[in-house]
Design a protein that fits this description.
The complex is a heterodimer.
Chain A (H helix, E strand, L loop, with lengths): L1 H28 L4 H6 L5 H10 L6 H13 L13 H36 L4 H15 L2 H15 L15 H35 L2 H8 L4 H12 L1 H25 L5 H11 L2 H29 L6
Helix pairs in contact in A: 1-13, 5-6, 5-8, 5-11, 6-8, 7-8, 7-11, 8-10, 8-11, 9-10, 11-12, 11-13, 12-13
Chain B lengths: L7 H19 L1 H18 L1 H4 L30 H36 L1 H16 L2 H11 L4 H28 L2 H8 L4 H38 L10 H8 L8 H28 L1 H6 L1
The chains are: A mainly alpha, B mainly alpha.
């Protein structure tokens, strides 16, 4: 088990090295003078020169790369061009709303999707099944901003049940936070829910046709117990995999959802950085998000050992 | 079909038309999705006849509700949202199609080489793993920020993050085909690698690639809309759906139609492409279809 985890852990190192290389050379391989591109169209030569010096672009490439990697290893993601604050400081300020949103979305999606998939598989080829399948096809096609604005329109503007936009930090009370995060979590969770429901149904259908399920039914185990204890646990590996794959989908969605709902998280930090062409921030966020994704995949790999003891060997 | 028993020619056409109908009935999703796509293609091609000038400013008509004159209302510059959405169909279809072609082609080349040469495989798959760890939208944003925004750059920026998925798919097909006896026979009879790849391996990748290409197309259209919505996509003077929606953001509470109409068309387009993809996957690979 320890050897398995260790092997997985080591396998993440080359991935992160490639990410770091990619992010670094992106700036250097793009055509034209990177300093001029970042400075924008109406920058004076002095401004361009300033940016060049600030980013260290006037030094040899190998030296830049050495400094960059050295800093990364020390947790330094670079410095914002415009605010002059370390990217890490900016990230820390914006971390809470994004984390709360991600966790809320994960909880909402899993809580709705797994029962939906289980029931659809149990009642296969009935109306309930078709409704769930229809939802899972539709949920995947509707863009997150359309769901977001529809939810705002219905639940905030028409019904006035929830706030239109904005975020209440946890320090001002959890009720306010939950109210402010409810609509964004559902908007972001829609595609995710569709994905998980679909895989849950497919995986359950496969397991439900196994002999041991028939045996369990035959010896008089309650349906509920057959579905949850016998079937769902054995159907779990593909479901957990897809929950992980979906988390990656979530990261892209976070940027858009935070813009729709005006949530001051990492997504807004990204968008503000785009508008100002603050490249070090974008660079730092890519490394951070990629790291998060690699970490999630690692946790998923480790969770397999819990669902399927054969993998431990 | 009253005289079916009479002449010979009629009896020969009957089974054929039945076969067509059986196919249509078995592949409802492909037919339904394709019909919607054809309609969208017609809208894109006939845009100049279906709609007015999408760029015309009319300050007196700012933020008008949907009406007989402006079917989808107007935006904050008094531009007709209907015209802009109709012209936006062009941009979305062009981007979806171009990204699918570019990503599939490059992914195919990388995938075949990786499946065939171990040395290429070791290096390229690490690169692909790294690229897959970067969220697609962030990678596209970084590329667009560093280059001057144009339709071509948007296509490239959206295509690059899609390549690893295609490459991995092709690689897995190539690896499974490579160990088959007929490939060994070809190698032992001295067939050159290039010929084996083109004649014996490529045909096996076609079916899964077509399915993958439809998904790449759908995801590209969504990504373009997302990027433009964030202000990092298609140049703002081009009326793409994402750009229309992006402008509607500020006036959402008083003019929700600016967002809803392009949003709904976007959803219909993506839905239609996904339906075609799901249908193709089911009919090309029955093994997967049972699992999904």
């Amino acid at each position: 088990m320890t050897a398995y985890i260790l092997r997985r852990l080591i396998a993440t190192i080359p991935v992160m090295i490639v990410v770091a290389l990619f992010v670094f050379f992106l700036l250097h391989l793009t055509p034209g003078d990177p300093a001029a591109v970042i400075a924008g169209d109406d920058a004076s030569p002095a401004e361009i020169e300033g940016i060049r010096r600030k980013l260290g672009l006037d030094r040899p490439v190998w030296e830049q790369f050495g400094v960059y990697i050295w800093n990364l290893l020390h947790g330094d993601l670079g410095t914002s061009i415009f605010s002059n604050l370390p990217v890490m400081t900016l990230v820390k300020q914006r971390l809470e709303p994004s984390l709360v949103l991600a966790v809320a979305t994960l909880v909402v999606a899993v809580a709705f999707a797994i029962p939906m998939g289980v029931v659809a598989a149990w009642k296969a080829d009935t109306t309930i099944d078709r409704v769930v399948m229809g939802f899972s096809v539709l949920g995947f096609a509707v863009p997150v901003f359309l769901v977001g604005y529809l939810l705002i329109y219905v639940f905030a503007i028409q019904l006035r049940w929830l706030p239109v936009q904005g975020y209440r930090p946890l320090s001002e009370g959890i009720v306010g936070t939950l109210r402010s995060i409810a609509l964004p979590a559902f908007a972001l969770g829609m595609a995710y829910m569709a994905l998980i429901a679909r895989i849950t149904r497919a995986s359950m259908l496969e397991v439900l046709s196994e002999d041991y399920i028939r045996t369990a039914h035959a010896k008089g185990v309650a349906t509920r117990s057959v579905l949850l204890r016998h079937a769902l646990k054995n159907a779990a590996v593909p479901i957990v995999t897809v929950i992980g794959i979906g988390l990656a989908l979530l990261i892209s969605g976070v940027v858009i959802t935070e813009t729709v709902f005006n949530i001051p998280g990492l997504g807004r930090l990204t968008v503000d950085a785009i508008l100002k062409r603050d490249y070090p921030i974008i660079q730092g966020l890519i490394i951070l998000f990629a790291g998060a994704k690699v970490l999630v995949n690692l946790l998923i790999d480790i969770s397999y050992t819990f669902f399927d003891p054969r993998i431990r060997q | 079909m009253a005289s079916t028993t009479a002449g010979l020619p009629v009896t020969t056409t009957r089974p054929r038309s039945n076969a067509v109908w059986t196919w249509v009935r078995r592949n409802k999703t492909i037919v339904g999705g394709s019909l919607i796509l054809l309609a969208l293609l017609a809208i894109a091609l006939l845009a100049p006849w279906l709609a007015g000038d999408p760029l015309q400013f009319e300050p007196t008509n700012r933020l008008k509700r949907p009406s007989d004159q402006f079917w989808f209302g107007t935006d904050q510059f008094g531009r007709d949202v209907y015209s802009r959405v109709i012209y936006g169909t062009r941009i979305s279809l062009i981007i979806g199609f171009s990204v699918a072609v570019v990503a599939t082609f490059i992914g195919l080349v990388i995938g075949v080489l990786c499946g065939f040469y171990k040395a290429v495989d070791a290096v390229m798959m690490r690169v692909m793993d790294g690229m897959m760890a970067i969220p697609a939208i962030l990678l596209a944003i970084a590329l667009i920020t560093l280059m001057k925004a144009s339709l071509m750059i948007v296509v490239i920026a959206i295509a690059i993050p899609e390549i690893p998925r295609v490459a991995r798919l092709v690689r897995s097909v190539v690896l499974s085909v490579r160990s088959r006896p007929y490939i060994e026979a070809a190698i032992s009879s001295g067939t050159r690698n290039g010929r084996i790849m083109v004649r014996h391996i490529l045909p096996n990748t076609v079916a899964p690639l077509i399915v993958q290409a439809t998904y790449v197309c759908a995801s590209a259209i969504l990504t373009e809309a997302g990027l433009s919505f964030l202000g990092a996509g298609t140049p703002p003077e081009i009326p793409s759906w994402g750009n229309v929606i992006s402008l509607g953001r500020t006036f959402f509470q008083i003019a929700p139609w600016i967002i809803f109409f392009p949003g709904i068309l976007l959803a219909i387009t993506v839905l239609a492409i996904n339906l075609v993809g799901d249908g193709l996957r089911d009919s090309l690979d029955p093994r997967i279809s049972r699992r999904m």
